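Translate sequence into structure tokens.
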Amino acid sequence: ARRNLPGSRSSRSSPAASLCFSAFDRGMSAQILDIDEEKLVRHFCLEEECKQVLEWFKKQGFVRPEEVEARVKLADKLRELGNKKFQASDFNSAMMHALGAMHCIDFSQARSTLQSEPQKRQVLSSLVPILSNLSVIFLKRGDAYNAIRAADLGLDQAGRLEKFQPKPPDVERHRAKLLFRRGLAKGQRKEFVDARADLHEAAKLMPNDREIRKALENCKAAAVQQRGSDDDKWRGLLSEAPRWARFQARVQRYWRYTKTSTLEVVACFRRPEGVKTLMLIILGP
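Result follows.
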């Protein structure tokens, strides 16, 4: 069994755990779960690393409150401090602040079950931007694997937030950032086809973001080159004119790429935001 972290309750002291044990004692079938386990920080850290996060948290003079609202407030404060560290290119400190913020709202299953819907919504609203920040921090540290995992979890939590509150504020912006950062991480791993899909979805959510559009165009070109380089090695080898066959295949591939890009640009300008951008380009500011 995993040892409880400092500050966590034993499973017997939790009200939800007591219900489970009393049900078991009455002879009802029950599945044994560690409902006091906190999983968010452990999603990214091994046991020894979790201890380092908790030690860092205490050395900075922070104490995790018991009340949900106070924990969310401290998480938001740590996220903002982490943003300043990130802007100063201190990515290790930014990572520790983000993990510390996550520790603040890392509620066990037992505690989460007892929360009201407004409290759950409040926790998720704080968690999604923390995961978005953590994704780009991992990316800057060259850890594409955990950057993707942070974005995956962030997108999942954004979906949960929408169940509690239809069209919550800023959720589309956070979703676009998470998709963008996951796309960059996949591109870093040379998974250009999957990266292109993420960047395409991000561009649909934020069509006027130049950084996303530029990354998408670069990814499309990289995907075409990656796909073509392997194909061109064998294409036409069984024909009488292998060089001509490879040339034809390359021309067709670039034609498809140009056609797809043109259709996407036309579709973009059909939207109200795209029409405004086109008028600014033609008429000027």
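Note: Confidence is low (pLDDT under 50) at residues 1-34, 233-240.
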